[in-house]
Recover the amino acids of this structure.
């Protein structure tokens, strides 16, 4: 099993969620997060300059089988890509085991 962590723009979240549901990734967790990245330009709104050094993003955490990693990563990249600096990052790491609390199932059965 693999854990996919993605940090994406909030504005692309609905598209990413829809695309993940289309490939049958129906369970994942997400949080609103703030980070610091390479996007350094400021924005002016109603005559007031705002720094973008603190960037609002959405953090997704998804656990999938080894066979589904590439499809999931490609789906996120396609749905979240705007072509501009600040589109986000995706990290993939190993998950040694998973347990379903209600039934005690573990391994892939624990997440499926």
């Amino acid at each position: 099993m693999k854990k996919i962590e993605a940090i994406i723009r909030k504005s692309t979240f609905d598209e990413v969620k829809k695309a993940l549901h289309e490939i049958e990734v129906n369970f994942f967790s997400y949080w609103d997060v703030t980070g610091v990245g390479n996007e350094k330009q400021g924005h002016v709104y109603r005559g007031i300059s705002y720094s973008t050094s603190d960037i609002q993003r959405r953090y997704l955490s998804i656990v999938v089988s080894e066979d589904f990693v590439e499809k999931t990563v490609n789906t996120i990249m396609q749905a979240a890509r705007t072509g501009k600096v600040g589109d986000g990052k995706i990290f993939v790491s190993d998950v040694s085991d998973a347990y379903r609390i209600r039934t005690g199932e573990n391994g892939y059965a624990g997440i499926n």
User: Anything to note?
Assistant: The domain at 2-110 is CATH 3.30.70.120 (Alpha-Beta Plaits). Residues 22 and 75 are 9 Å apart (CA to CA). The mean pLDDT is 89. The chain has two helices and six strands.
